[in-house]
Specification:
CATH class of one domain: Alpha Beta
Bound molecules: NADPH dihydro-nicotinamide-adenine-dinucleotide phosphate, dtdp-4-keto-L-rhamnose, magnesium ion
Helix content: 25-40%
CATH topology of one domain: Rossmann fold
CATH architecture of one domain: 3-Layer(aba) Sandwich
Number of strands: 12
Strand order of the largest sheet: 2-1-3-4-5-10
CATH superfamily of one domain: NAD(P)-binding Rossmann-like Domain
Largest sheet: 6 strands, parallel
Amino acid sequence: MAILVFGETGQVARELAVLPDTLCIGRDAADLRDAASCAAAIRLHKPAAVINAAAYTAVDAAETDEAQATLVNGTAPGAMAQACAALGIPMVQISTDYVFAGHGETPWQPDDATTPLGAYGRSKLAGEMAVRDAGGAHAILRTSWVVSAHGANFVKTMLRLGAERDSLNVVADQIGGPTAAADIAAACHRIALQLIDAPDKTGTYHFSGAPDCSWADFARAIFDEAGLNCAVHDIPSSDYPTPAKRPLNSRMDCGTTHKTFGIERPQWQASLTQILKDLGASK
Ligand SMILES: NC(=O)C1=CN([C@@H]2O[C@H](COP(=O)(O)OP(=O)(O)OC[C@H]3O[C@@H](n4cnc5c(N)ncnc54)[C@H](OP(=O)(O)O)[C@@H]3O)[C@@H](O)[C@H]2O)C=CC1
Ligand SMILES: Cc1cn([C@H]2C[C@H](O)[C@@H](COP(=O)(O)OP(=O)(O)O[C@H]3O[C@@H](C)C(=O)[C@@H](O)[C@H]3O)O2)c(=O)[nH]c1=O
Ligand SMILES: [Mg+2]
């Protein structure tokens, strides 16, 4: 029996598609703006587990489109979780560091208070609560700063800008863990398989690449690895105004993910090397 994956074109979904026994479905089969169609897809396929890798991920656009973001990130995962609970199968819901307010410097624990700063974070938090409320076996896996060779992400933006410019201003006061989509897909897959046999592992977990760094540090690593001559100037977030406010402290303690599932924090440098190789952008 297969693991049903919501998402086909996304960064994480594309990496799940190459893992064993996954069936990925896109918006033509289940549109997350239509929660009932998501529940129906689960009842149709009767999978062994569900991984939801689809989401409204445009952080700034969500500020003026919160109703849609909430339908996709909140209501749809809730309907999926209810369908899973009714069938007695586990669900893995991917969530985000943006559920945290981001004060202080201490890594967030999974049970720390959540206080999103923006609409995207609020919509993802609504999804977390709806999945928990459905009452079935589940893992909510919060990750951060997702990058891959596919789709839109910070690595691809830096490669583009770094080839065009001699220097770039990048925020240095937001600290978190860059995480490769391939590493997230592997973690979700392992967690889904473990939940099938051990539904008591249900809970909320963290998974991000190590070590924590700033976006500016990450940009420097990308330019170094790609052999691009582009100087990175550290700037505060206040010098890079955006519609949505981002958390400054996105550090997440991933200890319970290791203890419960045997999954360690991946080293982002190694994953970055692989991504640049896949893109043909290594120096
Ligand atoms: N990107 C990041 O930096 C981070 C992401 N996350 C979380 O990780 C998960 C995976 O993110 P990522 O792979 O980066 O996402 P992407 O932005 O790469 O892809 C989003 C996916 O969701 C699909 N989708 C969006 N709206 C709908 C809809 N209405 N109906 C059906 N499908 C829809 C998209 O399909 P289509 O192509 O048809 O639009 C696409 O497949 C998400 O839960 C996200 O919140 C967590 C932390 C950081
Ligand atoms: C392009 C650019 C960005 N930045 C900053 C803006 C921002 O604070 C940071 C990263 O930019 P992004 O557009 O990738 O940020 P963003 O889209 O907010 O990334 C987030 O996406 C959602 C989906 C998540 O869940 C989060 O974990 C996080 O990955 O870099 C600069 O400082 N200089 C630049 O030239
Ligand atoms: Mg983005």
